[in-house]
Write a structure and sequence with these properties.
The structure is a single chain. With about 290 residues, the protein is of the alpha+beta class. Helix content is about 45%, strand content about 20%. It folds into three domains: about 90 residues, no CATH class; about 110 residues, Band 7 domain (Tetrahydropterin Synthase, Chain A); about 55 residues, no CATH class. It starts with 10 loop residues before the first strand and ends in a 16-residue tail after the last helix. The mean pLDDT is about 85.
Length: about 290
């Protein structure tokens, strides 16, 4: 069951300080006067009041901007103070201060298998802050440690759902879809740390690489896939250019191409357009049939 946060107000510190100081002067003066005058019962009463006054002086505390104090009385939650300044509350309250500032969690690289089973190294930066102080204090043992553990768990789970890279462009990948991956990571971390009353402001990958044992092989694979993809694009463009060239030549009445000449021209043009090295021209002084 989630603990509901109850925001409460306490007394301002400065009026209470001046009031207690004035009361302290009066009580101490009456105590001394009672014992000097021989009024022992009155002196004992004044001494007890002095002890109470001393206990009340321990009720002062300060809060900085973006800081809260969770008030606990004999194990029971009394409320949360979020207004900054010099405050006074019941000195019997246990005051647990909680920072409401944004924090950075810079995770160390961890090794995990991606969706294709390849071992990779991945790390992330998570920006978070406490939103519900009651949940942060009472619902988890240590909310900072809870965020660390759950963020790493979410990162591992998210990395296993995506491939490292995808050259075909039809699948989201860790390297090619950084915005979508960051949004999914932020969403998953938020779901896991909601129990601690924490709000995830941002979550992004800070490190992504293949594991050292397969880095060389995967680099060769990436290069091969890149070459294949580039060659496929070149062939598509060359086919279009050859079709356009033949159509323009056939549209001209001065040039007539039979099937054999057309095939030879297509072959020559494809060699020129798709060849890896520069083409050396050959002068043909005869005909295709000699």
């Amino acid at each position: 069951m989630q603990t509901r946060e109850l925001e409460t107000n306490v007394a301002h510190g400065w009026p209470m300080l001046f009031g207690l100081l004035a009361a302290g002067v009066v009580v101490i003066g009456l105590t001394v006067f009672s014992f000097v005058s021989g009024l022992i019962p009155g002196g004992i009463l004044m001494a007890l009041l002095s002890a109470v006054w001393l206990v009340l002086m321990f009720g002062f505390f300060t809060l900085q901007p973006n800081e809260a104090a969770v008030l606990i009385l004999f194990g029971k939650y009394q409320g949360t103070v979020k207004t900054a300044g010099f405050k006074w509350a019941n000195p019997l309250y246990t005051k647990v201060k909680v920072s409401l500032r944004a924090r950075n969690l810079n995770m160390e690289p961890i090794k995990v298998n991606d969706a294709r089973g390849n071992p990779i190294e991945i790390a992330a930066v998570v920006v978070w802050q406490v939103q519900n102080t009651a949940q942060a204090v009472f619902d988890v043992d240590s909310y900072a440690h809870f965020v660390n553990v759950q963020s790493e768990s979410a990162l591992r789970h998210m990395a296993m759902a995506y491939p490292y890279d995808d050259f075909e462009g039809d699948t989201r990948s860790l390297r090619g879809s950084t915005d979508e991956v960051s949004m999914d990571l932020q969403r998953e971390v938020q779901e896991r740390v909601a129990t601690a009353g924490v709000n995830i402001i941002e979550a992004r990958l800070s490190h992504l690489a293949y594991a050292p044992e397969i880095a060389g092989a995967m680099l060769q694979r990436q290069q091969a896939e890149a070459i294949v993809a580039a060659r496929s694009r070149i062939v598509d463009g060359a086919v279009g250019m050859v079709e356009m060239a033949i159509e323009k030549m056939e549209a001209c009445d001065k040039i007539e191409l039979d099937a054999e000449r057309r095939a030879a021209m297509v072959s020559n043009l494809m060699v020129v357009l798709c060849g890896h090295a520069e083409v050396t021209p050959v002068v043909n002084t005869g005909t295709l049939y000699n």
